[in-house]
Amino acid sequence: MEPQRNGASSFTSAVSLDQLGVSSVPHRYVLPPSQRPSPHLPVSTTPPIIDLSLLSRSNINEIRIACMEIGCFQVINHGIDQSVIDEALEVSTEFFNLPNDEQMRLFSEDVHKPVRYGTSLNQARDEVYCWRDFIKHYSHPISDWIHMWPSNPSNYRESMGKYVKAVQILQNQLMEMIFESLGLDRSYLHEEINGGSQTLAVNCYPACPEPGLTLGIHPHSDYGSITVLLQTRSGLEIKDKNNNWMPVPFVEGALVVQLGDQMEVMSNGQYKSVIHRATVNGDEKRFSIVSLHSFAMDRKMGPALELVDEQHPKSYKEFCFREFLDFISCNDIAKGRFLDTLKLNKP
Ligand SMILES: O=C(O)CCC(=O)C(=O)O
Ligand SMILES: [Fe+2]
């Protein structure tokens, strides 16, 4: 195992705290009051639900509005079989039910590692943890990475592999629709998107004895173009256009699509990379399987030239995935957002 940071010798994962049956959350998970989840105001709106079996102009318009205003929507009839989803969730559940020692074999805080098990430690340099454990692995092209994925449970690779491939197909379709909604060609950057990277994060949020004091994952935006998120119950929240937290309701069979930093940059700021977080709950474990799509590790990308003109000057610098990883490996994400370092003409 690699050297661990101060305090990590007494490392306990959220899952193992849950197994121990703790009745209060340890101090290191307690957030300052201003950052705790607050009871929701009545919500006037939630991200739209787009039926992908009904591809139409009005769908594309709905996507455009959602991407401009909140950077998030849900999709139904997305073409991924329920059996594929169920199997992916089954192996996720089995993985997090394994003895902690088994999970720890993959533990690493090095964000450059293609496969790693972790807790909030690496994302919270200020030592405020969050109530989540995860396994993260590079996933595309699958043949390059699958041999590094967890081998326990024994069907993890096969079941997760089916899900990963299905989401990769879906993301191609979603990218085409998003490009169309921006007025770009549907096949814009087709090669880069097919040859891009996919990282899968399987998140486990155990039931929490004091859900009002902590979070499952701290506010952040994803670095990639889009994220496709499967949740087993509600918990995901996004910042709406008035800067209020808006829950993303759990919809049976739906997948959540979130725009990441690369999409905000590519759209030259027309579309929003959505800031989101996950809350935890007192009674039941929650899983999310999060597929993060981006351009290849060293492929620089910037605003689409078609979206830059005199009225809309180029507003972001070019960047690549590796620069983002370098940024988060030496910065506390709570202290700054990578996207902000890319903005040109800052006010
Ligand atoms: O579990 C969730 O709802 C959010 C997870 C997330 O934002 C992430 O893994 O990047
Ligand atoms: Fe995220």
Describe the protein's architecture and organization.
It is a single chain. This protein is of the alpha+beta class. It has one domain: Jelly Rolls. It contains 9 helices and 12 strands. It has an 8-stranded mixed β-sheet. A 4-stranded antiparallel β-sheet has the order 6-11-8-9, with no helix packed on it. β8 and β9 form a beta hairpin. α2 crosses α6. The structure holds 2-oxoglutaric acid and fe (ii) ion (FE2). Fe (ii) ion (FE2) binds next to loops.
Give me the number of helical elements: 9
Residue-averaged pLDDT: 89
Helix share bin: 25-40%
SS class: alpha+beta
The CATH superfamily is identified as B-lactam Antibiotic, Isopenicillin N Synthase, Chain
Q: How many strands, what sense, and barrel or not for the largest sheet? A: 8 strands, mixed
Which hetero compounds are present in the coordinates?
2-oxoglutaric acid, fe (ii) ion
The largest sheet has its strands arranged as: 1-2-10-7-12-5-4-3
Q: What would the principal axes of the Cα set say about the shape?
A: globular
How many E-type strands? 12
Concise account of the structure shown:
The protein is globular and about 60 Å long. Helix 3 crosses helix 6 (156-181).
Pick out its properties.
347 residues, Jelly Rolls, eight-stranded mixed beta sheet, metal-binding
